[in-house]
Design brief:
The complex is a heterodimer of chains A (107) and B (127). Chain A contains no helices and eleven strands. Chain A has 107 residues and is mostly beta strands. Classes of the chains: A mainly beta (107), B mainly beta (127).
Chain lengths: 107, 127
């Protein structure tokens, strides 16, 4: 199974800050990587697919980059509604696997 | 707009059974592989099972193989997960998701799409 290592597990930032999360796969997954936002009690919401493609309707302050084994997710200017947990997920091979999540809080 | 609505969760005894359902709309259901993902109380996400668009191919995580059965009814746009021989380790919220696009002969890697309005189906296994 492909292991996805996500860091940090939590972070605290001020409104307007740039926030970056990383995700590393233990083998090459090309660009078959998604990023999700999850709020309590809800299913994950897809933000980025194909490592860097913004899902329709998602604000442009969210972005993703990387390929192969190392990926990053960025919020360019943190907004109050961005308080959530973020997950990466590879879809190159079954079983699909997820990172451990990053909880983003306001400082 | 993709809509997915899970139902059928509840309390089960160890060794017991449950059936989860997922009703889909907003896309051509039979053209997509469908997937179940669960989220444990500690918040980790685990892929559980997937089924091809036709229903002819099924896939399972090792942790549920032989105990869970995935199926679908394309005439009703509904996905199912039958959970048997449940244990406390199966306690989780179960989410369905639209997976890869399937042609008549192959399925192609595609984004995994949940419905963020959904709460999933909560399964609690306890004596």
């Amino acid at each position: 199974d492909i292991q996805m290592t996500q860091s940090p597990s939590s972070l605290s930032a001020s409104l307007g800050d740039r926030v970056t999360i990383s995700c590393q796969a233990n083998q090459d997954i090309s660009n078959f990587l998604n990023w999700y936002q999850q709020k309590p009690g809800r299913a994950p919401k897809l933000l980025i697919y194909g490592a860097s493609t913004l899902e329709t309707g998602v604000p442009s302050r969210f972005s993703g980059s990387g390929s192969g084994t190392y990926f990053t997710f960025t919020i360019s200017s943190l907004q109050p509604e961005d308080i959530a947990t973020y997950f990466c997920q590879q879809y190159d091979y079954l079983p699909l696997t997820f990172g451990g999540g990053t909880k983003v809080e306001i400082k | 707009e993709v809509q997915l609505l899970e139902s059928g969760g509840g309390l089960a005894r160890p060794g017991g059974s449950l059936r989860l359902s997922c009703t889909a709309s907003g896309f051509t259901f039979s053209s997509y592989m469908m997937t179940w993902v669960r989220q444990f109380p500690g918040k980790g996400l685990e892929w559980v099972s997937a089924i091809s668009g036709s229903g002819g191919h099924t896939f399972y995580a090792d942790s549920v193989k032989g105990r869970f059965t995935i199926s679908r009814d394309n005439s009703q746009n509904t996905l199912y997960l039958h959970l048997n021989n449940l244990s406390a380790d199966d306690t989780a919220s179960y989410f369905c998701a639209r997976d890869r696009f399937c042609s008549a002969t192959s399925c192609y890697r595609d984004k995994l799409l949940f419905d963020p309005r959904g709460q999933g189906a909560l399964v609690t296994v306890s004596s």
